[in-house]
């Protein structure tokens, strides 16, 4: 009897110790979560300001949600983006290096917007640059087809949370943007248990939100991304073919359209008198980070005169946009019609020219042999030129890229990619000249 009583006391003692330990651990987790939440919120609010192009976001259909409102929303509204995608299926590229997932997430009003507008914006991005999409979509009031490159579980996790965040915060993302995904064959994501991070998100700071999410990437993932080429042309083709319109405006994710461009193009393009293979160039400028996004061409010209704006890549690599002939575009502004119209024709085409343009969706595809940096866009524009396209520069529409770029020494890996693509271009050039039966002496 005494042994039984001692045994019960021992069991009760062990159970008490166990429950006390569990209680302490649970209390610690709750405290740690609260501390981390406060640290995250401080990191977002310290020395931060809203993105420039989001200053007028309240003009949109739905204003940005504040953090407290986001926390109180029903749980079913937090369904993560891309939660039903299967990485066991997909569309391979020709060399089976990348797997594509068309229409991984369709904007709520993407089809309706495609019917109502004549032109679709197609763009591409890696995960770490995706915050620019908030500016692009705010400026472009029409359908947007976005291709995103994702390598592995961590980046897919980041993509899920950030796209969900953008769709909850901004109606113009939720309504107009359709997403496609490309993954490398040796870095296919795997769905797993992922925590809810929305309590630390702030709709006012998209860039800072994404930068915080990117911190979960481990050093191996970052090293892998630096070592392996970014398949820009695969993504451009993926985004372009996701558009449902006859005209496509193909850009990079950090190229921000001018105000009211969709409406102006809707009125111009149906009446454009093009006899044969026409592309409409949208001039691109670099804007000083201290400046406010120009709402019109006169405002852009004021920034230009103050040295706060200049032609894209003017200091880094002038031939990138040189043939656009910005001097004529800037000169043709006195009593200029506010409607979109042709400013002038590109007559001094030079190799390495790579404008952002609007054209029918029958332009040559971007050659997917060019991977990484160098000869990705200009090779496609070169084929357009050889095949007989004429480039018309439009006004008063324009695009902007944030930051006045300075020429810096390129990293070794980027120069290596550029040299490799230069060799590939020699073969590409001979193929293009043979295909269109041009003399090899032509530029």
From TrEMBL:
Main location class: Golgi
Cofactor: Mn(2+)
Protein's UniProt keywords contain Plastid: no
Keyword annotations: Glycoprotein, Glycosyltransferase, Golgi apparatus, Manganese, Membrane, Metal-binding, Signal-anchor, Transferase, Transmembrane, Transmembrane helix
Protein's pathway: Protein modification; protein glycosylation
One Pfam assignment: Glyco_transf_49
GO biological process: protein O-linked glycosylation via mannose
Membrane-spanning intervals of the chain: 384-404
Membrane topology label: Single-pass type II membrane protein
InterPro entries: B4GAT1 (IPR043189)
Keyword ATP-binding found: no
Reactions it catalyzes: 3-O-[beta-D-Xyl-(1->4)-Rib-ol-P-Rib-ol-P-3-beta-D-GalNAc-(1->3)-beta-D-GlcNAc-(1->4)-(O-6-P-alpha-D-Man)]-Thr-[protein] + UDP-alpha-D-glucuronate = 3-O-[beta-D-GlcA-(1->3)-beta-D-Xyl-(1->4)-Rib-ol-P-Rib-ol-P-3-beta-D-GalNAc-(1->3)-beta-D-GlcNAc-(1->4)-(O-6-P-alpha-D-Man)]-Thr-[protein] + UDP + H(+)
GO molecular function (one): metal ion binding
One of the record's GO cellular component terms: Golgi membrane
Cell location: Golgi apparatus membrane
Family: Belongs to the glycosyltransferase 49 family.
Name of the molecule in the record: Beta-1,4-glucuronyltransferase 1
Gene coding for it: LOC105228140
